[in-house]
Amino acid sequence: MIEAPRQSAWRRLQDAWLGTVLVLLYLPIVSVLLASLSNTRYMQFPHRVWTTSAYSDALADYTTAGLHLTSFKIALVVTLASVVIATAGALAFARYEWRGRRWYQRLLLLPIFFPQPVLGLALLLALNAAGLTPDWRTSAFTHLVWITPIVTLVISIRLYGYDVQQEEAAYDLGASRMQVFREITLPVLAPGIVSGAMFAFLLSWSNLPLSIYTTGADTTLPEWLFSRTATNYSPLVPAVAVIATALSALAVLLVWLAWSGLRRLLR
Amino acid sequence: MKIGRRAGPLAAAPAMLLLATGFLVPVLIVFAFSLLPPRTFGWTGELTLSNYSTAFTDGYWRNLAWSCMLAALTTVLCLLLAWPAAKALHRLAGHRATAVTLAIALPIFISESVRLFGMALFLMPGGGILAGTLDAVFGISVGTILNTRIAALLGLVYIHFPFVLFPTLLGFSLLPNDQVEAARDLGASGWQVFREIELPLAAPGALTGALFCFVLSLGAYAEMSILGGQAVTVITRAIEQRFNYAQDWPLGAGLTMLVIALTAIVVFPFLRRVDIDRLIHR
Question: Could you give the residue ranges of the DSSP H alpha helices within B190-248?
């Protein structure tokens, strides 16, 4: 009991620490937001004039629309393909008992524990050896190599808490393999598949190190932002960064709303 | 009943095919390229180890050493930051814990280039967010750490912190709160609680995070060029220069193989020992 006051002071210190960490995490993001609200060619904070003109410039600019489209095409392909491959992959990862499963689990973790720029470079060399010209499609393939294992893990987590006996009971009652998958396994997996899809979209949309090496003549948003931060800065750059981030948040919000609406409808 | 003796390989096949063509084959191609004579582009030429000897005699070990040192420093700093944060997060419960966890996770999904750019804007000298505010409000003018090794290190810590925090948190979630309380009631000191209870239980999670952080930092690239400027040439930057400016693909491939080998040395012992089912199952 004598310890109590010291302990609570200690706890308050920990909470303060957590708060500090949170502030530090958002400081750069807020900085981008602040920088976008100016109209001067050079960064001179605090701005003399606060304006949203950079946003109207960004929206009127044809190039930035093209960047969004390229990033969107890649993210869409990656999301659809990775979810299909990873759903099957998760069953093999966490549900089925088969020889070679442990090897498969480890192989699947390798691309996650691998430096991304090195992976991008390796794929660039491989594309070159195969005689393929890099463009947004090769970039989507590269994203897929890194993102599919992550989505597989996300979906697998659902399977670990799963009661196998439901499936067995259905088999005993004469259900076919397809029926069991559609009626029992898929509904259990569904929340994992939805969050896996969100992960895939967001990770692909925001990826820089893989895209740098594998998009060829096409340019994604993070690539453009990366090159423009080094040279040719204007408030247009932070404005595009804010728009791109807001769009990805909007996409995820829409998917989430559609998903929860669908669930309420089915119930 | 064991299900999926035959369905298992079938379900795993698409993912295996993807990783074979998109991961294993490219790594083998890099290896093959690294054995070609310097400055060749085709697939002809005597196999040679000269790229590897050049990698060591031409001072590239210095770039590799910088990469390793920065990665190690990043890992240590991230662990020091993440441990108390994970502890505080573990103690929070219910909606507040979910909200804080979500708030920490969200920035992961904002592009690296946006976040690092924001950091550069914050640190910029003169009219940067920090320098400008200090000047306008307090009349203090400060210098900048932008384009130094310190800035690069801060960028690395910033980007990789969540990758250490979440596995550490996973470790802490194995830790029963009442056990800590009981130890405290029995008169254990803070240091004893840390050494006897927290460390052994939360260490596997923290170690996974540390490994993750080290490997990802080793290959870091954007942090260095956006925040570090010309202050330090890490190995990934040296590799990129071989490919783009020097047009020496075989040497670039040789250096890439060194990074891959280093990654393998760190990751394989971990993968051999870890039981994935248990790690996720909890």
Answer: 190-193, 199-218, 222-223, 235-244
Residues 6+ apart with CB under 8 A from A100: B8, B9, B12
B256 CB contacts (<8 Å, ≥6 apart)? A118, A121, A122, B30, B34, B239
A86, two tokens: 């990873």
Q: Would you call B119 and A31 a contact, using CB atoms and an 8 Å cutoff?
A: yes
CATH number at residue A251: 1.10.3720.10
Question: Is residue A55 in a domain?
Answer: no
Complex-level ipTM beyond the 0.95 threshold: no
The residue written with tokens 């803070």 in the block is: B190
C-alpha A93/C-alpha A107 separation (Å) is: 11
> Does B118 sit within 8 Å of A88, measured CB to CB?
no
A256 inside domain:
yes
Q: Is A52 among the domain residues?
A: no
- Kindly list the residues from chain A whose CB atom is less than 8 angstroms away from the CB atom of residue B226: 226, 229-230
- Residue A249 is part of which domain span? 61-266
Domains of chain B: 59-281 (1.10.3720.10)
Query: How confident is the model over B3-36, as pLDDT tens digits?
Result: 667 888 999 999 999 999 999 999 999 999 999 9
**pLDDT tens per residue, range B133-143:** 888 888 888 88
How far apart (Å, rounded) are the C-alpha atoms in residues A48 and A235? 14
Asked whether the beta carbons of B79 and B164 are under 8 A apart, the reply is yes
Q: Is A200 on the interface with B (CB under 8 A)?
A: no
Q: Is residue A54 part of a domain?
A: no
Confidence class of residue B182 from pLDDT cuts 50, 70 and 90? Answer: confident
Q: Which B-chain residues 172-201 have CB contacts (< 8 A) with chain A?
A: 184, 190
| Residues A122 and A232 sit within 8 Å (Cβ to Cβ) | no
Domain count, chain A: 1
